[in-house]
Design goal:
The protein is an alpha+beta fold. The chain has 14 helices and 33 strands. The chain has 4 domains: 147 residues, OB fold (Dihydrolipoamide Acetyltransferase, E2P) (Beta Barrel), CATH 2.40.50.180; 173 residues, OB fold (Dihydrolipoamide Acetyltransferase, E2P) (Beta Barrel), CATH 2.40.50; 150 residues, OB fold (Dihydrolipoamide Acetyltransferase, E2P); 122 residues, Aspartate receptor, ligand-binding domain (Four Helix Bundle (Hemerythrin (Met), subunit A)), CATH 1.20.120.30. The strands form 6 sheets. The protein has a 7-stranded mixed beta sheet with strand order 1-10-11-12-3-2-9. Strands 20-13-14-23-22-21 form a 6-stranded mixed beta sheet, with no helix packed on it. Strands 4-7-8-6-5 form a 5-stranded mixed beta sheet. Helix 6 runs antiparallel to helix 9 and helix 8 runs antiparallel to helix 9. The longest helix is centred in the middle third of the chain and has 30 residues.
Length: 620
């Protein structure tokens, strides 16, 4: 045992992990914070709890229990994160409880054994500090060992600040791109429209829109985006349509009236013993069909819709049972069962329809998007029902509008794209023709600062931005540089390929070209998930081959100042399993962390070779 000479005059933060007392020199601790929200990183070491945003800086957070191979536990009100600074990096460690700060002048120190009493490996313990009375023992962490990630040396300049531009596609793909138009498509009342991608600045989720008094009817309000004021225009109103809420309201009124007619007809049939002409199948009923076709990302609307589906199913089951009993001459108690069993279900269904109406009014904005375009003298946000996809269409397939429309004073419609043998029609709009003279004067009359398009001088100040397509896998948000995205499609038929790598879902047909499809959940070793209406395929180029990436949902198209993109923290830098990470950035609008993906590194060199060999063996 020896005196702690090198600790004289120093203080130590004392804390607990799994009922053991540990300490770290206070000079190493930058601050102590409550347990923050964390962003998980696929394929990261299991002891990395995730990343968080600490005053606009990316902070990797280590789960100390997992690092020490101790039993994990859920965070409590006492859980804290110690923010440690050293060796040019900042790292957080999770501890169960902070007990305070203690002077260690009067303590002695000794070398730790190979395995300390708690089962913690010696390499993580710098010294064992003991009070002279022997009643207080503190295990001093070796911060460097605790935070060492064992990463391979990988020059950070390779990654830069995460904002390096991807290599452009070469050869045939580049020449083909010159013959195509890339567009962002969206829905308005089940009709698909589009703008050329070069005029779309970004696609935003609907945030808090501030209403503007005495504004034109087509102006929803204003939205603050990166300290600039953006006017939000209801595209439906601009085109003379009813609002989305009004359209859905009207649809629910019709469903309600039809269901009441069905119920009255059922009652008459049972009372009079006549043939029932209504639909006995819940799935084939008008309400059942509407429920199956209705799509939403709102949890509130989705939950009410599921309850409505169950009530509709139960209602039709009871109706079929009573009709069968009446047909077999066993309908003596039919009226009683109708009143006691079926009528209450019908009443609950009507109440649930009204609840759905309220949920739609409060939550349908979660499905809507704001498409930001430069329209003549203005940069505006257009409120649309739903953004469909980023799509490339051959210029040769675009048609001019019919003469009757071309001669019309409204020149908004520029061209028409007909796909899938004419079954899918997309109206390509001319953003310069969105507003008539009167509408422009009305907007100018609002006199709202920031509506006018920025001057060349002020725009130059904002030129250092990157444009990203953001997508979701589970609860985590990822992003890809828009220059690396060829298009975004709905998930359609994927043909399985025998003996392909486990993360290759199969191949799909992209306008006559067979391309491999990568399931990013499998590639990133995340849990599997059923495909649904939000599932999308992002088409990119990996190793010179067009490849589809299956994601849970595409969220937005964003412009992010390059200064907000940080290099990958040392905890992840150079790791083989996380080499696909290009940088980390924060979405200023909601504060959520975005993991910027390096597309060409999603597959390792070995993966690419294996993929090519597999596809060559199965090419027709």
């Amino acid at each position: 045992m020896k005196e702690a000479k090198d600790h004289n005059g120093q203080q130590m933060a004392i804390f607990e992990v799994a009922n053991e007392t540990y300490g770290i020199q206070i000079s190493t601790i930058k601050e102590i914070v409550r347990m923050p929200a964390l962003t998980n990183v696929p394929n990261a070491p299991d002891f990395l709890a995730g990343l968080t945003n600490l005053r606009n800086r990316v902070l990797p957070v280590i789960d100390t229990r997992r690092r020490l191979r101790l039993e994990p536990c859920e965070p409590t009100d006492s859980t804290r994160v110690l923010v440690l600074e050293g060796a040019g990096s900042t790292t957080g460690i999770i501890v169960d409880r902070v007990r305070g700060v203690s002077s260690i002048e009067e303590m002695s120190q000794e070398e730790p054994p190979e395995i300390v009493s708690s089962g913690v490996e010696r390499k993580y313990i710098k010294t064992i500090l003991k009070a002279k009375n022997g009643q207080s023992i503190i295990l001093e962490f070796d911060v460097e060992a605790l935070c060492a990630m064992g990463q391979a040396a990988q020059g950070e300049q390779d990654r830069g600040a995460g904002a390096e531009q991807a290599r452009p596609a070469a050869g045939a793909a580049e020449r083909q791109g010159q013959q195509e138009v890339q567009m962002v498509t969206f829905l308005l009342s089940n009709q698909e429209y589009a703008f050329p991608i070069e005029v779309v600045s970004e696609v935003l989720r609907v945030g808090k829109i501030t209403r503007v008094p005495r504004s034109p009817g087509f102006v929803v309000g204003i939205l603050t985006v990166r300290d600039s004021v953006l006017p939000i225009i209801d595209n439906r109103r601009l085109f003379g349509m009813e609002s989305l809420v009004e359209e859905l309201d009207r649809g629910l009124d019709l469903l309600l009236a039809r269901k009441k007619e069905w119920f009255a007809q059922l009652r008459r049939s049972l009372d009079e013993g006549t043939t029932f002409r209504g639909n006995r199948s819940a799935a084939l009923s008008e309400l059942g069909v509407w429920i199956e076709e209705f799509r939403t990302v709102s949890q509130e609307i989705g939950a009410v819709t599921q309850e409505l589906r169950y009530l509709n199913l139960k209602l039709h089951e009871w109706a079929s049972r009573l009709l069968d009993q009446a047909k077999e001459g066993r309908g003596g108690k039919g009226a009683e069962q109708f009143d006691q069993a079926l009528a209450p279900v019908f009443s609950n269904l009507l109440l649930k329809l009204e609840q759905l109406r309220g949920a739609i009014r409060s939550g349908i904005h979660e499905d809507q998007r704001v498409v930001v375009v430069e329209a003549g003298a203005f940069t505006i946000g257009l409120l649309v029902d739903r953004v469909q996809q980023v799509l490339r269409v051959a210029k040769a397939t675009l048609e001019e509008p019919p003469a009757i429309l071309s001669d019309h004073t409204d020149k908004t419609l520029a061209q028409i794209a007909k796909l899938d043998g004419g079954r899918r029609v997309i109206m390509l709009l001319d953003q310069r023709q969105l507003f008539g003279t009167d509408q422009i004067k009305a907007i100018e009359g609002m006199d709202q600062q920031g509506f006018k398009k920025q001057s060349s001088a002020s725009r130059l100040e904002n030129d250092d931005v990157i444009q990203l397509v953001t997508f979701r896998l589970g609860t985590e948000q990822f992003a890809i540089g828009i220059e690396e995205v060829r298009e975004i499609n709905r998930l359609e038929t994927v043909t399985a390929v025998p003996q392909a790598p486990h993360f290759i879902e199969g191949v799909m047909n992209l306008r006559g070209n067979v391309i491999p499809v990568v399931n990013l959940r499998k590639r990133f070793r995340m849990g599997e998930r059923q495909y649904d209406s939000t599932t999308k395929v992002i088409i990119v180029s990996i190793g010179g081959r067009f490849t589809g990436l299956i994601v849970d949902a595409v969220s937005e198209v964003l412009r992010i100042p390059r200064r907000l993109v940080e290099s990958v923290p040392p905890v992840l830098s150079g790791g083989v399993e996380t080499d696909f990470l290009k940088g980390i950035c924060k979405n200023e609008r909601d504060g959520q962390m975005l993991l910027l993906v390096w597309v060409d590194r999603i597959l390792s060199t070995g993966d690419k070779v294996q993929l090519e060999d597999t596809l060559e063996q199965h090419e027709p």
